[in-house]
Amino acid sequence: MVVLNKIYTRTGDAGETALGDGTRVPKTSTRVVSYGTVDELNATLGLARLHAEGDLAEALSRIQNDLFDLGADLCRPDMAKDGEAGYPVLRMVSAQTDRLEGEIDAMNARLEPLRSFILPGGSALSAHLHLCRTVARRAERHTLELAAEDEVNPAAITYLNRLSDWFFVAARIANDDGRADVLWVPGANR
Length: 190
Description:
- By secondary structure, the chain is mostly helical.
- It has one domain: Up-down Bundle (Hypothetical Protein Ta1238, Chain: A).
- Helix content is 54%, strand content 5%.
- It is built from five helices and four strands, in the order E-E-H-H-H-E-H-H-E.
- The chain has helices at 30-49, 54-74, 94-108, 124-149, 154-174; strands spanning 16-18, 24-26, 118-119, 182-183.
- The strands form two sheets. Strands 1-2 form a two-stranded antiparallel ribbon.
- Helix 1 (30-49) packs antiparallel against helix 2 (54-74).
- The radius of gyration is 18 Å and the shape is elongated.
- The chain starts with 15 loop residues before the first strand and ends in a 7-residue tail after the last strand.
């Protein structure tokens, strides 16, 4: 259980922060940038949820929770030491990605195949989901950068990759099952 009885601690005033295992690192470290971008994605998703209803709203709520799991995973280095923590360390698992894939398949079955690239827009929810998609891609790039220099749970990377696909398909669903998608017209303004 998390207990936050004081919001500011002053421990980060010198430009460092603590990782999940207590290690102090610069706030500019690749690991902090990675999970910080996941946090930004979660905040962006919160804006999208303001426009969602029904099944899509429930799915977005589940994804927000997954993103907290992902941040907890990314903020804890050295997976080999998980057993030494004294408590179960939260790591992403393949079932979370499997759920996304099932939802992508179900949503995609409702859509006509694309014959053009889509411009972000249409409904407010669709536009917000496209923003989520781009932030998810950035979080994935930062996490891949982290993986090039330090250990990262492969399930975390796979989840981020699939999540951006999920946002793309969900954005089409939010545009009246793709009927209100804004299509790119190459060279339209020449």
